Amino acid sequence: MRLVALIAVAAAVAAFVWLRHGSSASQNGVVARVIDGDTIVLASGTHVRLVQIDTPEKHGECYGQAATELTRGLLPPGTHVRIELDPHLDHVDRYGRELGYVWKGSEDLNVALVRRGAAGVWFFDGKRGRHAPALLAAADEARRERRGLWAACPGTQFDPLESVSTGPAR
Q: Range of 85's domain?
């Protein structure tokens, strides 16, 4: 009887954890290089696009090079990361890049880049992923504090349904 009760409790805990965290898949990897502010390459050769955010293009857009450098500083070659896929979003984009949240230890780099003002929030096709509230809060904070692109690129509009457009590089 005790064994049955113990199994029932364990099953209930497992179900709670699964429901709380969803069924998102994740994988561990090592950063080989940073392509730009929102795209990295793992040592395995996998290209990862940080999902639900958008940084300015490094060539030609205001704050693009700075966003790329910030990402390089946060994710230098050799950094161990965890890539979390969102069950509510596409897992691969039209360029064949994996779409995921990049975690370095307990830090969600997608949120960190938005909080530092290196990225805007972009809900592609209007789809909000599991970390949408944290991303929106980080964007509000960055804009309020005029961090990163919000200070460097006057006129940048905040619209989570559109990619970020900061205008020409200065």
A: 24-152
